[in-house]
Design a protein that fits this description.
The complex is a heterodimer. Chain A has seven helices and 17 strands. By secondary structure, chain A is of the alpha/beta class. Chain A has three domains: 99 residues, Translation factors (Elongation Factor Tu (Ef-tu), domain 3); 109 residues, Nucleotide-binding domain of ferredoxin-NADP reductase (FNR) module (Rossmann fold), CATH 3.40.50; 86 residues, Beta-grasp domain (Ubiquitin-like (UB roll)). Chain A starts with 6 loop residues before the first strand and ends with a strand. By secondary structure, chain B is an alpha/beta fold. Chain B folds into two domains: 109 residues, Nucleotide-binding domain of ferredoxin-NADP reductase (FNR) module (Rossmann fold, 3-Layer(aba) Sandwich), CATH 3.40.50.80; 60 residues, no CATH class. In chain B, 21% of the residues lie in helices and 28% in strands. In chain B, β6 and β7 form a beta hairpin. Chain B is elongated, with a radius of gyration of 18 Å. The model of chain B has no long low-confidence stretch (mean pLDDT 95). Classes of the chains: A alpha/beta, B alpha/beta. Chains A and B meet through β11 of A and loops of B.
Chain lengths: 321, 203
Amino acid sequence: MSGGAAKIPVRVAEVTEVNALIRRIRFVRRDGGPMPAFSGGAHTVVEMDDHGTRRLNPYSLMGDPADTTGYSISVRRDDAGRGGSLYLHRHVVPGMDMVISHPVNLFALDLRAKKHLMIAGGIGITPFLAQIAQLAALGGRFELHYATRNPALCAYGDELTARYGGRVHLYHDDAGQMITLPALLAGQPLGTHLYVCGPKGMIRWVRSTADSAGWPRAAVHHEEFLAPPPGKAFDVTLAASGKTLTVGTHQSLLEAIEAAGVDAPYLCRGGACGQCETDVLGCDGTIRHNDHWLTEAQKASGQKIMPCVSRFEGRSLVLDR
Amino acid sequence: MTKTDFPPSILSRPTYGVLSPRPGPAHLLIADGAGAGAVLDLLGAADAGMAGGSHLIYLPGPDGTDRTAELAALALAQFHRAPSFAAALPRLRKVLGDAHMGVQIYLAGSEGLIGQAQREVMEAGLPHDAVQTEHRGSWVRRVQCVHCKGITENVATDPFLCSHCGLALFVRDHYSRRIAAFQGVNIDAEDPGSVPPPVEKFR
């Protein structure tokens, strides 16, 4: 399989339970060499062989980008998810050999900013850990507002506060604490860039509040990886490969294409990066577009599909793949 | 969408829109010469409240157009008339330094004014496309000589003589946002002395 970024053979060096929902996994290269350098906000795609099911999930790199001795990710267990996080929680142990991808950054800092204002919700803290380490080394100006359910689930909150003090603001839902976003946004000096990573509702709230407060779109950055949603099984014909296959209920179109032995491009596998964009040659039915990549006009045209997260309902779908 | 009909060109060549009121806690307007018309149209289309939150910096245009009297009558929160962009710069930098995110920025008039003001806004940390721009009036260009790096203002002909090193320069549509200038390249480098007669392309 040559789709996606280049691969790195790694060994699991450490597994740490961070709290009741989150565990941290550290990878080092099997050959003992240094990891590729990355920039804060980058993710890696972790490959899993989950008892015969191949899973590839993106996780933000949370370590200091200057540390090339290994990569660390933090994984929140999603009991209702498709199984990637459960696999990493239940089956990954130190010493295990795995394969991860080279880093890809779809959530980079804009270093032209005068100040970086970061809003994190829950496990959405992970890209900010790397970004803050990068900014601290550069002497950059930042402010983090991090909301979690309660102190026990506030992963890395104590470490951040100990290291960065007043630049870190923690909020706990159970204590009724809320980020006072309109006031926070109104007080920011010109040249501030806003970054948000967290649950879908939080991202929508932050983006729409910034929009109505007059913030330019290009100064507002967000990252949200979508899990491929389940749906009815459907058939798809791959014209270039001359294959017809069935996409299962809990399988993504991209996964079905890969399972059929067809090499397809991808990077994020979460509807964000645009790499897997595929031409639709024939469509008798409805494409369920679930990505953040295609424009509304492109989605309406029915001529493009993002196989990592989008599905189809109808009689026949033919792709140029 | 621009009201000025520039010929189609390369991607590098800036394009302009039509100013439209956008909600924000404050409004900063920078205009020269005929750009006054865009400011008047903008405030005419906006809620009555916009004028009370607006700060306008205005300078005469490169062709001498000066509509100061009409703009002074708008009763804006602040109106400042400067004789040149250089004279307005300390004020503009102070205003940007004190501003908060959410301020709406509108630039109107000549390409030289729009480009230089946009450069200051970018220096203040905003994305280049975070401002609204509308071209009005003179087409004269601000051009950088790629050889001596000197900048000649208000270039009307192509080719023209660099005001710094004297080379005959061909005016390209290749534009630098960082320098806020089009690029001028020596036209007779291969065959010294063979310079076509200047044509007034930008008036």
